Amino acid sequence: MNVAAVPPVVAVSCGDPSGIGPELAVKARAALGPSLPFVWIGDPAHLPHGAAVAEVTRPADALSVPGDHLPVMPLSFAAPARPGKPDPANAAGVIASIDRAVALVRQGEASAVCTLPIAKKVLQDGAGFAYPGHTEYLAALGGVERSVMMLASDRLRLVPVTIHIPLAEVPAALTPELLEDTLRITASGLAARFGIARPRIAVAGLNPHAGEGGKMGREEIDLIAPVLDRLRAEGMDLTGPLPADTMFHAAARAGYDVAVCMYHDQALIPIKALDFDRGVNVTLGLPFVRTSPDHGTAFDIAGQDRANPSSTIEALKLAARMSGSGS
C-alpha cells in the first residue's frame, strides 16, 4: 500500500448508540471542524436531533464536507436508539461498525481507527460477542495473536499486563510468557508508532512494596525479575519491579516513557486520577492504528447533552499523529 495515498481521514466506529457515542461524534466534529477529518460509521437516525449531517460513500469524501457538518457513512441498525436504554437488537450493528472501520483502514481508504465506547454485555446478549472487549476483538480482526492496551495522555503512558479479569485471577494469569510478550509489544509499539527508538520502561510489582523481598509475595522474585533480567540482556531499557505506590508522582514519571503494570486498576487509576478527561486508549501490536476515548458508554447521562468530548478529541488527534496524517 502506498501510505502517501491514504486519505488523512480517521474512521470512527459508532459505539453503543444508546450511550454517549453519537453525542461525542457531533461535539468532536464541532470542536475540530475540517482540521482533523474523520468519518462516523453508524445510523444517522441515532445522532442527536438536529445534528448537521453529510452522508458520504467513502472516507475521502469527508475532506470536502463543510466543517459544521458531520461526515457519516450510513450503516443500518435493527432498532432505534433510546438514550440510556441499550438494546441488544443493535449489537450486530455496533460490531459491523467496528468491522467496517477496520476494513477501511486495511484497504487504504482511511488512515486510522477510532472506536467509540461499547457495552460488552449488550454485545454478548445480542450477538454472542465472544471477546472481553475492543482490544481482543481488534487483535482478531488484525490477525495477530495478541495486542496490548496502552492508556496515554500528555502526562503518562500506562500498559496493564492483565486486563479484564477478576483481581483474584491475576496471579495465575500473570505468566512469564505473558509479561515478556507485553514488554516486547510495548517496546515495539512505542518505537513504531511514537518514534521512541529505545523506550524507557518502568515495571511495577504485583504485591504491595513490590513484595518487600518476598515478605508480601514472591511474584517479583520468581516471575517478574527474571523476565526483566533476560530482556535487559537483550538491550531493553527496563527498571523494576518497582513498588506501584511510588511510581506515579511527577518526579518518578519523568524517568520513564511508559509504565507497565500487572493488572487493570494498577494502570487505570493513575491516569484517571491525573488526566481523567484527556486519557486515550491505544492498542499496540496491530497492523493498523487504533485509539479510543478512555471511558465507557455513560448510559446515565446519554441524551442529556452532558458528555465531555475531550477524551474523544484527544483520541482523534493521537490517531492522526500515529498514522502520520496529523500534526
From TrEMBL:
Pathway: Cofactor biosynthesis; pyridoxine 5'-phosphate biosynthesis; pyridoxine 5'-phosphate from D-erythrose 4-phosphate: step 4/5
Keywords, alphabetical: Cobalt, Cytoplasm, Magnesium, Metal-binding, NAD, NADP, Oxidoreductase, Pyridoxine biosynthesis, Zinc
Pfam families on file: PdxA
Cofactor: how and how many bound: Binds 1 divalent metal cation per subunit. Can use ions such as Zn(2+), Mg(2+) or Co(2+).
Catalytic reaction equation(s): 4-(phosphooxy)-L-threonine + NAD(+) = 3-amino-2-oxopropyl phosphate + CO2 + NADH
Enzyme Commission number: 1.1.1.262
Binding site for substrate: 134-135, 272, 281, 290
Binding site for a divalent metal cation: 164, 209, 264
GO biological process: pyridoxal phosphate biosynthetic process; pyridoxine biosynthetic process
GO MF term (any one): NAD binding
Cellular component terms (Gene Ontology): cytoplasm
Subunit organization: Homodimer.
Function, as annotated: Catalyzes the NAD(P)-dependent oxidation of 4-(phosphooxy)-L-threonine (HTP) into 2-amino-3-oxo-4-(phosphooxy)butyric acid which spontaneously decarboxylates to form 3-amino-2-oxopropyl phosphate (AHAP).
Family: Belongs to the PdxA family.
More info: The active site is located at the dimer interface.
Protein name: 4-hydroxythreonine-4-phosphate dehydrogenase
Phylogenetic placement of the source organism: Bacteria, Pseudomonadati, Pseudomonadota, Alphaproteobacteria, Rhodobacterales
Encoding gene, per UniProt annotation: pdxA
